[in-house]
Design goal:
Subcellular location: Cytoplasm
Helix content: 40-55%
EC number: 6.1.1.2
Number of strands: 5
Strand order of the largest sheet: 1-2-3
CATH superfamily of the largest domain: HUPs
Protein name: Tryptophan--tRNA ligase
Structural class: mainly alpha
Distance between the termini: 30 Å
Radius of gyration: 21 Å
Catalytic activity: tRNA(Trp) + L-tryptophan + ATP = L-tryptophyl-tRNA(Trp) + AMP + diphosphate + H(+)
CATH architecture of the largest domain: 3-Layer(aba) Sandwich
Bound molecules: adenosine-5'-triphosphate, magnesium ion
Largest sheet: 3 strands, parallel
Function: Catalyzes the attachment of tryptophan to tRNA(Trp).
Shape: globular
CATH class of the largest domain: Alpha Beta
CATH topology of the largest domain: Rossmann fold
Order of helices and strands: EHEHHEHHHHEHEHHHHH
Oligomer: single chain
């Protein structure tokens, strides 16, 4: 039986990278799979945060996800801290994962910044909590963006090691989860720096297109996006060594449902003075229905809280027995 799990942090506004790299797949998969989508607030406190803002961002992210097409009647949508399994299984898996495995994680190296001694321990063990998120539902498929590939490999290693050590006769306690990295754009880059990925937690609001931005804001951000002074090339080879140009062409292709070659056939030879407004218009047109729905949903806190509570109850009903099995498997007495 196939089960999909994926998570997203309530660390800021849902952006075009999240959408094209992950959410488009989530929306598609709710029709064909048993899907669990989680707002990972436990992950969000691994970096310094403001408690009041976290609560607000959790609700707003729920609204933005529903506005983008997640249907709480077709998938389970909830916030991580409401289901006890995540933190409890993470502890068990921390004792399965090896320090050497975590030391290789590049996201920790990027997010800790210059001050390794000052980073939280939670930021270091973050990928183990992510493994618990997935394995605690015995999920088989995990649709994510390119940046999560390494964490998914770690989750597979943890599943394999747990199965070897505690899996019993057939060694199949946890299914080894398959990453699915296949959105229309699996790695959308920052509008301020073509070599850094677009992120919710980037301090510059101009670095990303939020799914909730209005048409004017979208246009302004694309017009201000960093680019080089050359016109667009006629073919894809001409994008090499031009990360900002490549990123804008990728975004255009993903939004238009076409490929880079087709975009360059249309715009090759033209300068950014004409390409950027065309891109801004296309994005505004594609995102407008989402941002309208978002504004309506966001105002209704009661409904959002109810949706998350119902989702948490459904998630817990799946996770609690798996956690119990895992506790028995490692030798804990029944409480
Ligand atoms: P943060 O900066 O707080 O880490 P984020 O923008 O990286 O936020 P996450 O909540 O960490 O977002 O990730 C949610 C999903 O979006 C994941 O599946 C991740 O792979 C995907 N994703 C994030 N950024 C991008 C991007 N720039 N391009 C494509 N997919 C992305
Ligand atoms: Mg991230």
């Amino acid at each position: 039986n196939e089960r999909v799990f994926s998570g997203i942090q309530p660390t800021g506004d849902l952006h075009l990278g999240n959408y094209l790299g992950a959410i488009v797949n989530w929306v598609r998969m709710q029709e064909t799979h048993d899907c669990i989508f989680c707002i990972v607030d436990l992950h969000a406190i691994t970096m310094s945060h403001d408690p009041q803002l976290l609560a607000k961002q959790t609700r707003e992210l729920a609204a933005a996800l529903i506005a983008s097409g997640l249907d709480p009647d077709r998938c389970i949508l909830f916030h991580q801290s409401a289901v006890p399994m995540h933190a409890q299984l993470a502890w068990i898996l921390q004792c399965v994962a090896r320090v050497g495995w975590l030391d290789r994680m590049t996201q920790f190296k990027e997010k800790k910044g210059k001050d390794k001694e000052g980073a939280s321990v939670g930021l270091y063990t973050y990928p183990v909590l992510q493994a618990a998120d997935i394995l605690g539902y015995r999920a088989t498929h995990v649709p994510v963006g390119e940046d999560q590939k390494q964490h998914l490999e770690l989750a597979r290693d943890i599943a394999i090691r747990f199965n070897q050590n505690f899996g019993g006769g057939d060694g199949e306690f946890f299914p080894v989860p398959e990453p699915m990295i296949q959105g229309p754009a699996t790695r959308v880059m920052s509008l301020r720096d073509g070599t850094a990925k677009m992120s919710k937690s980037d301090p510059s609001d101009m670095s990303r297109i939020a799914m909730t931005d209005d048409a004017d804001t979208i246009m302004r951000k694309f017009k201000k996006a960093k680019t080089d002074p050359e016109p667009l090339p006629e073919s894809e080879e001409g994008l090499e060594g031009r990360p900002e140009a490549a990123n804008l062409v990728n975004i255009y292709a993903a939004l238009a449902g076409t490929d880079r070659a087709a975009v360059l056939r249309e715009f090759g030879g033209q300068g950014f003075g004409s390409f950027k407004p065309a891109l801004g218009e296309l994005a505004a047109e594609k995102l407008a229905p989402n941002s309208e729905r978002y504004r309506d949903l966001k105002a209704d806190k009661k409904t959002l809280d109810r949706i998350l509570r119902d989702g948490a109850a459904k998630a817990d009903a799946i996770a609690a027995p798996i956690l119990e099995d895992a506790k028995r498997a490692v030798g804990f007495l029944k409480g």
